[in-house]
Amino acid sequence: MTALADDRVLRGHPSVTLKLDAAIAATTFDRPTLVLDLDVVEQNFAALQRGLGDASIHYAVKANPAPQVIERLATLGCHFDAASRGEIELCLSMGARPEHVSFGNTIKRATDIAFAYRAGITHFAADAEEELHKLAEHAPGASVYLRVIVEPNGADWPLTRKFGCAPARVLTLLGVARDLGLDPVGLSFHVGSQTRHATMWSHTLDQVAAVWAQAQDAGFGLSLLNIGGGFPAFHGDAVDPLEAYATDVMAQVRARFGDVAVMAEPGRAMVADAGAIAAEVLLVSRKSDDDLHRWVYLDVGRFSGLAETEGEAIRYQFETARDEDETGPCILAGPSCDSVDVLYEKRPVSLPVSLRAGDRVVIRNCGAYTSSYSSVGFNGFPPLDVMVI
Amino acid sequence: MTALADDRVLRGHPSVTLKLDAAIAATTFDRPTLVLDLDVVEQNFAALQRGLGDASIHYAVKANPAPQVIERLATLGCHFDAASRGEIELCLSMGARPEHVSFGNTIKRATDIAFAYRAGITHFAADAEEELHKLAEHAPGASVYLRVIVEPNGADWPLTRKFGCAPARVLTLLGVARDLGLDPVGLSFHVGSQTRHATMWSHTLDQVAAVWAQAQDAGFGLSLLNIGGGFPAFHGDAVDPLEAYATDVMAQVRARFGDVAVMAEPGRAMVADAGAIAAEVLLVSRKSDDDLHRWVYLDVGRFSGLAETEGEAIRYQFETARDEDETGPCILAGPSCDSVDVLYEKRPVSLPVSLRAGDRVVIRNCGAYTSSYSSVGFNGFPPLDVMVI
């Protein structure tokens, strides 16, 4: 219960959390279900708008592509960051205007670029020469922002080098883009997933500002800074409140980049605390008489929604109706016949000793990166269900 | 090309591999597709039958639940190991008789046990007291085999302690099962996924034989030994040919357990080499001018079928039309905007230096644990497509 209290304080909308709780309490679920409160999404968007000021907010659709989320955000004037043709089609079908949807994946199929261009998408990400050639061929004259690799900043989930180019390559790529007839409008970067405090942005922004200055000196006239995502959600460790966080980040941006056009791509911060998974205990056991830990098996696991427990990176918060009882350490695992479908083992979870098969477990702040990661039917289990309220 | 040649020698059915190649060559794919040759599945089943003699073969449905695979195997008289209600329904709908389908997941929802019992399923796995109570209530009198934890044996993918109970708990659980009116018929274990040589079974069988002897001494009259899976597929390192492997394992079993009834649960060995994924290169890039490795991005990744590359555990074999050209080391990654969607980085893959966006890549021996792991639509990419030939 502590986790929930903290969360309510940090995010400051007790009434909607109660709405989520009431919906879960009133429902009998026959499979694990993500219950999603659109009003919380709307409140998060509003908090980000207040904090980010005149920056353009492009919701990272991959965080939760539920059509109702996209529709609500489109109605509110939010823009979108799409990773694929599928996400672009989703946004357009839910009412987004094509000029408000950016194609943010640096790895694009040529035919998907052509589709996006025909559909009216104007802004594309890139980090490599071959990608610029594909864009020049299939989206001639398009606006391109180049993604730069930045050093790790201590985020909960620092990113690999998969995306971006080294700062030293930026000028070369800007030149290639211009020579190919594209419009190299700016730079993008990613500060690292789940960057819990705004102060952690400063070193990253310094790095990008140095590259930006070089590009301006070289005469590229950049006009757009895409600050990406990294805005955090509450997963057990304290995070800054969303509006204050966004305000602080923007102050740091303005101090370094002046009044350039800014776009941001929040995903997790927009939807994580809008959702909770209603799950069920399938089995509680001990492997031997002298086992220190119980094993608790849930009906949801790494292949049915909780993929972000990989490496025990994201620590979800669990609630049960027995939380007043004595608690003890548990290894938590999913329901599949797969030995890697274990959620928390290195750092066990504390759960009531009275927990048993059939008990409901509510998993907090699961609105982001759960339902869409779910497998189509691994081990014959259906994908995570979604109920929007 | 070397990998393919090895594979053909090891598995000895060049004609059907050529059939798979011909089907892929003749098809234009607009998304990553698993092409699956049912004749290879049939040949693998036949090889296992010859090697395992009178053991009952229960195909582990989770390895590949394509309805056509289940139907073909049911026609051939194969039995099935199901992990869930969904897999049981699939087997029954494809013609399997309920007494030929075992419910092999030790973690079962109570309502799924009741469903299975009503459907005529007779054999259930268990490894904990609470599971036995659920079985006694919802499948009274059912036959139960208890899964025992065994020590790691050097398998490519040793299993965690997620499944099974310590050997010292087996007698207690057999007693609980009997007292609850269940029929504790035997023991099961898992030697470890991808146990590449039959000789690696001996220490595991010794452990299980010791528990078995204790149970017989205690008067439990066990009659069924479930030797589980672990039968390997070719993924770059040499494996024993399937029939010889199975023959050797059965000889080891008979030497320790006499003429007890034996069941086996092969999954990977039955379907892995029956399938190849037709994929496409989306981008080839270098992060900086002095990068030692190229980055190669495919249209299939960890969240769209290649989940078993987690920790770089399973090493797939890649073929392109440029394999005669000079090769060089690559980091291989999937198409999603997810930094963990990297397939091979610690041990880079050697690919032609001439490789470029749009090139087809055929990934060998992908028939097992690919399509069903695929996400429903992470990043807006559709699930791995399946084409059965």
TrEMBL record, chains A, B:
Its cofactor is pyridoxal 5'-phosphate. Signal peptide: none annotated. The active site is at 337 (proton donor). This is ornithine decarboxylase. Keywords: Lyase, Pyridoxal phosphate. Residues 40-272 form the Orn/DAP/Arg decarboxylase 2 N-terminal domain. It comes from the Bacteria. Transmembrane segments: none annotated. Pathway: Amine and polyamine biosynthesis; putrescine biosynthesis via L-ornithine pathway; putrescine from L-ornithine: step 1/1.
